[in-house]
Amino acid sequence: MSQAQAAKKKASEYKTSLKPIWCPGCGDFGALTAFYNAFSEAGLDPKDVAIISGIGCSGRFGYFVKSYGFHVVHGRVLPIAMGTKISNSDLHVFGISGDGDSLAIGGGHIPHMARRNMKMVYVILDNAIYGLTKGQASPTSPLAMKTGTTPAGGFEKPVDPVLLMLAYGVTFVGRAYTAKHKTVSNLLVKAINHDGFAVIHAISPCPTFNKNVTFKSVSQLVEDIPEDHDPTNKMKAMELAMAKEKLYLGLFYQSEEPTLEAKLHLHEKHNMKPDTKEGLGNLLGKFQ
Ligand code: SF4
């Protein structure tokens, strides 16, 4: 048995002592299980992991996974995740954001993270509604869906996160479904090993407030991406993303491109690391 294998933790060892306070049946439970399993499979050490989460029910995620964590202000997961990674490029950084947090108030950050291609994993837990604030229309709510803010039915077209990520030039784009938590953990393991910005669109129904996008309705639409799909073929990935009446699950697209860390030589320049006296002195010196 190799040293890495010997050091592997069980999935249950990534649980914290806090019990999730999501509603019974919330899709986010499946995502949490997938995180425990993927961390175990990838052999991540909690001291090497930082989970940055935004506002919304999904924002609580970091409390339940052994790691460093930062529950940040609305829509600002990506800038803070980027700052975390720049300060310590050895960390595995995960951003967790809901559909409202990531695609409304935080939507402007995504194309720029795509341009930078910084190595991190960004998971969009999409329940197509604002759950924490009791059921308002979000950027992914279906057209004509009635919510607290759209009592006569929504009139704005929903955003398609996968298509958007492909158009932005994200170098790893996948879709998963939290009711099938293996679809999430399989993608997470691949995303952890991807050298660049990886985005996973994880459909995660909200049984309390969304009576349109439900486990039943989503389960009728999902289907695995065909095995012969070539994930380096972006046009084909877009075609799959645009499929009518089907929600494909799996890896749509992956490309190898230089990361921001490589361009800035962050791995060689540990002078920003706050855990050394020299690093702290260098950092403070810039402001004197
Ligand atoms: Fe989950 Fe919806 Fe409850 Fe939030 S309101 S915890 S998204 S079921």
Q: Care to describe what's here?
A:
It is a single chain. This protein has 288 residues and is α/β, with parallel strands linked by helices. Helices cover 32% and strands 16% of the residues. It folds into two domains: 3-257, Rossmann fold; 262-288, no CATH class. It contains eleven helices and eight strands. Helix 2 packs across helix 7. The longest helix is centred in the N-terminal third of the chain and has 15 residues, at 28-42. It is globular. The model has no long low-confidence stretch (mean pLDDT 93). The structure holds iron/sulfur cluster (SF4). Residues 22-23, 26, 28, 57, 127, 131-132, 206-209 line the site of iron/sulfur cluster.
Quick description:
By secondary structure, the protein is α/β, with parallel strands linked by helices. It contains eleven helices and eight strands. Helix 2 (28-42) crosses helix 7 (181-192).
User: What is the CATH C-level name of the largest domain?
Assistant: Alpha Beta
Stretches where pLDDT falls below 50 for ≥5 residues? Answer: none
Report Rg. Answer: 19 Å
SSE pattern: HHEEHEHHEHEHEHEHEHH
Number of domains: 2
